[in-house]
Amino acid sequence: MWIRPVAGQALSTIGFALILTTLSTGLRSEDGQYRSKVLIDPSGALEKGTAQSVEQLEQQLDSLSDPYAKAAASRHIARVHVERKQYDKAIRYYETALAADGLSAVADRELLRELARVYLLQEDYTAAVRALERALQYDLVQEPVDYLLLAQAWFQLGDYVKLVKTLDQLQSNSLPLDLVQQRQALALYYKAGAYSQCADLLHSMLEYEPDNAQYWHQLAAIYLLQNKKREALNQLALAHEKGVPFRQQDTLLLADLYAVNDNPHGAARLLQSALLDQTIAVSGENYRKQFEYWLQARERDQAIAALGEAARLTGDTELYLYLAQLYSEQEAWQSMQEAVLAACAVELADQYVSRANLLLGISQAKLGDSGGARRSFINATLIAGASAQAAKWLRFIDAEPVTRPEARKIIGPCYGSEDKRRALQAAAGVDESEDAETIVSRPGEKAVTAIKTIPEQRLYTVAYSMTPAEAAEQALSLATRLAVNLVRAGGDVDGALHMLFDGPLPAPGEPVDFELALPVRGKPRPSGRYSERIAGPFRCSYLLYQGPVDDIAVAWEELARSTRESGYQLSGQARYVFTRGGSVPAGHVALELQLGIE
Asked: What is the pTM of this model?
């Protein structure tokens, strides 16, 4: 142990900013030390002499012949001038009191300490050093305050070596510090860059006050300043285990420390728990960090789930396309396609158009949609990025040659800016006066409707009854509650939030019964109103919607109309699948609307 604190001192919250002792106060009286002596007044009347004004006392000071009387009177005058902030006069009378040599060694040391405080107030740090060094020469029981004041003077003079040597004498002389003094020493050591001594002090302070969260976090920070990442991890992990309060930045720091100490699995688990408990923000940035940790830990399924949440919450095109690539490596073609379509729910930045169409084409080819794959691969060849790979895929699927109208512009869900498309047309030498609609539909063909089959899923569900708009607005809080219950039941979230409707959709504003559901991994043990069930393959038409909550009903009607016009019969089942979170404005949602078909 470095220095044990003195019990019974009040504790205040401080940082590492330098704490200077309040110098203009605390000049305490030492009258109790001199009761064995008698003040001798030249007039012989003690009471009359002490009642005189300071001015009168100053006038009579030269006439005092007794050393003690002169020293005591000078000390009194000096303290009055300190209170009046007349520091030059105070210094003069302190020196007179010391020169009189009429007080005890204890009193003289206190006079030097008070004189040093006045010099510090005047910013005469060299004189303060001289006064304090004189005080330390007395053969008396040493007091920490002298070393702390001297260290402050060395700090102001910029001599950090002497500052550290001065404070080190507190340890070598086994001088006890109260909590305020320990904070002063800690701040001074920190300013001098003496991090090893800071760590020793903080360990001592934690022994006395183990529940002080600030000390735990400061100690971890000190270890990091020394590049002692393992010690910082051990300290912060122990604090977390003890239930010390953590801010978000503390939790993220602990996760980073796990990762840099070759434990990315621990980092990912920590963030997973913190996200579910909402002790850190449920944000795309934090899910992205979790994804990176799972990926480092080679937990690919967990990494994909975290990346999906990061993409959903941010709407980041790059994250969606990376997610699609990971699904491709797992040959999860349907999930790959959904990730690409989620990326393409809004107009893409031009640098992503080619890559998005390539990935969409691959998923379509693997799912047996050769016509859709051909169109997507053609799109990918019309703009720089993945054009060479798309051309190889066109040869691989033995696609029909690209016609001139097909090469005019990008047709499909993954498109870029209008200006870019016009530039492509001009570069290709296309006559822009030609009717562009002829390449979208042909006489006698039915309207194009996107169709897919959702594979069988295990779902963790809870039933509600409210309007679809109310459900969409409350989706985040309801989903968080469902996810927390799922984890407590022993399962893990394995996909985006679903809302399942069985029966005709209600008129706008009318309530409807539905199930809120999350795809599940593991073996949860549901209880109460929560349940687990297997949802069989779901064949549906679908539409990616991003816009005001109040317009969802209109989007449903449009999807139902186009589905019927395409020759499909509705099954009466429908789903919302939430595709995005933080990137949409208030009052808006991003959904994939799915209508069951027979």
From this structure: 0.56
